[in-house]
């Protein structure tokens, strides 16, 4: 099992393919396993690097400890150092996009390109209260599921794919009843409480792609509009009829946007 150490803690990662490095960062409930359907497409022309943050998947759990996104930023830095990589394209979805953005402002020299899917510059009252609702529901797997999961999807997808959602429910409720998993989820959720990069967005130095979803009710469109307006070299794409879980609702488009932007050569036009 490929791991590296950071301050005595074991971090799990995966490397797939060859080429320019592309680091893809997990959403809050995800792990490296979540990317399995995308590995072939995203490693066809890039070296795809996956990593479980602390408190995720096969990485070490932070039982009894509190932290903020800064520790996950250091996980990404140590991953690149462990692999002797000077820089990479860094992409992330949701929680992972926030860590990706903080990595880019902290280590601009290590960030070739930045891809932010379903991102926000800060945890405001809306997102903060949603996180607090998740934590309050964490005593029951079923309550946690119904509090956290439906809002991740667009209403149209949730309705049309109801049988798929019911199968997801059967898988997720036992997981949400696991005290180790839900304890990690509470810590990950709490780690976002202090997240605020609004006064540091001018420190992003690389070409950036911001991807919004028209029916994202966790990180609404105006959050990405703010990012696009305050990051200098920024491109903004809006996916119609799609909720926060863009990787499930629009998988082909999701993978195409990441692979395309990560592999795009540096092109400059004289106009």
UniProtKB/TrEMBL annotation:
Pfam families: Abhydrolase_6 (PF12697)
Coiled coil feature spans: none
Gene3D superfamilies with a match to the protein in the record: alpha/beta hydrolase (3.40.50.1820)
Domain AB hydrolase-1: 22-256
Name the record gives this protein: 3-oxoadipate enol-lactonase
